[in-house]
């Protein structure tokens, strides 16, 4: 199911250009997980499916007629799919990254409201923090960014 979620999210990154962003091969934990094709078919694990996306939601239809719907987001080469409150993170396969995998150009710090809100200083470029989320033994999220772990205390 995790591979299915990845595929669904990857397919619907932007409404007008969803296919451009989602098309390609996606890995989960370093292993091949899915292949999304421009003809709106995909292989997720061993399943062949048809997909449709609207920029926020991805729907997969299996050969037996069963469907799965999930939300997704895509940023650069990272696809996050959420279904039934659980998220899966996928990365674009290096061999298939190509044009669709290019990250948007970095913005200068302080050039937008978000930078100001985050108290960015100087004229350096903003970049991807490669945020990863895991859970501790109690199920609480642990954020990992820039080599540091962040968690909440209750």
Under CATH, the topology of the domain at 2-96 can be stated as Lipocalin
Count of DSSP-assigned helices? 3
Sheet having the most strands: 8 strands, antiparallel, barrel
Enumerate the strands of the largest sheet in spatial order, edge to edge or round the barrel. Answer: 1-2-3-4-5-6-7-8
Please name the defining characteristics of this protein.
154 residues; mainly beta; Lipocalin; 8-stranded antiparallel beta barrel; 41% strand; globular
Outline the structure in words.
This protein has 154 residues and is mostly beta strands. The chain has a domain of 95 residues: Lipocalin (Beta Barrel), CATH 2.40.128. It contains 3 helices and 11 strands; from the N terminus they run H-H-E-E-E-E-E-E-E-E-H-E-E-E. The strands form 2 sheets. An 8-stranded antiparallel barrel has the order 1-2-3-4-5-6-7-8. It has a 3-stranded antiparallel beta sheet with strand order 9-10-11, with no helix packed on it. The longest helix is centred in the N-terminal third of the chain and has 9 residues. The protein is globular, with a radius of gyration of 17 Å.
């Amino acid at each position: 199911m995790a591979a299915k979620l990845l595929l669904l999210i990857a397919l619907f990154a932007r409404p007008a250009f969803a296919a451009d962003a989602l098309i390609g091969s996606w890995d989960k934990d370093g292993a091949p997980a899915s292949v999304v094709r421009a003809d709106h078919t995909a292989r997720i694990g061993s399943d062949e499916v048809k997909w449709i996306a609207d920029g926020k939601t991805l729907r997969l239809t299996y050969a037996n007629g069963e469907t799965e719907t999930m939300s997704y987001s895509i940023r650069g080469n990272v696809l996050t799919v959420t279904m039934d409150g659980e998220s899966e993170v996928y990365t674009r396969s290096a061999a298939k990254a190509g044009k669709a995998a290019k990250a948007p150009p970095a913005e200068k710090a302080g050039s937008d409201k978000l930078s100001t809100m985050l108290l960015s200083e100087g004229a350096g470029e903003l970049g991807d923090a490669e945020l990863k989320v895991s859970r501790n033994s109690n199920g609480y999220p642990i954020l990992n960014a820039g080599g540091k772990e962040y968690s909440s205390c209750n």
